[in-house]
Amino acid sequence: MIRLRALAAVIAFAPCTSALAIDPASLEGWWGGADIGYASITRHFSVQGESTTQHKMFTGLRAGYSWDPRLLLGVEASNWLLKGASAWRINEGQGIQTLNLIAQAYPAGNRWWVKGGFGGARFWTDVPEEGTGRGIGGVLGFGYDAPLWGAFRLTPAIDFAFGRINDATSPAGVKQNQRFRAFAFKIGLTFR
Predict the structure, then answer these.
(1) For the chain, does the N or the C end have fewer beta carbons within 10 angstroms?
(2) CATH of the domain at 117
(3) Whole-model pTM above 0.90?
(4) Strand 71-83 to strand 51-68: parallel, antiparallel, or no bridges (unpaired)?
C-alpha cells in the first residue's frame, strides 16, 4: 500500500518537474549578483619579510552580459575585510578591494561553473598614519547555480584571489609592497 501511494505521488507531481527546467534562451542578456562569505587571507610584506593570515568577512558584487547561456562576461568588485571599524573606533577599518574583468563558463552545460578574472587591487585603510596602495590581482573560482524562483539563483562558490599591492603604508610608518592570496567560501544571489 505504501509503494502504491509513493507511485501515485510521483505521477501526480511529475508534470511539476518541467517548471524547474531552465530555458536556455532566458539565460541570455544582463545578469548580476551579490555575495557574502568567510575568507582566509594571507599577506606577505616586502620590508618586514613576514606573513600574516587572517580569517575575516568577504563581500562582493558582480554584473555583466551574456550573449551565450554558457558564458557570462562582466566585472566583479570584491572587498576582503582585514580590520572592521566600530562605533567606538571609527578610524580602524582596513581591507583589500579588487575590481576584476571576469569570464564565468558553464563547461558541462549544466549549473556548475568555473570563473577566471584579472584586474586591479587596492589596499585601503582608515587607521591613522597608514596609507593606501594600488596594484594588480586576479581571481579563480567555481560554484553552482541553484534555481530559487524566476530569474534568481542561489550561488554557493569558492574563490581564490591573489595579487600584489605597491607602496602601502602598513603598519604605521612603514611603506612597503605586499602580496596577498585569499580563499573565500561564499554564498550569493544571482539574477539572470
Answers:
(1) N
(2) 2.40.160.20
(3) no
(4) antiparallel
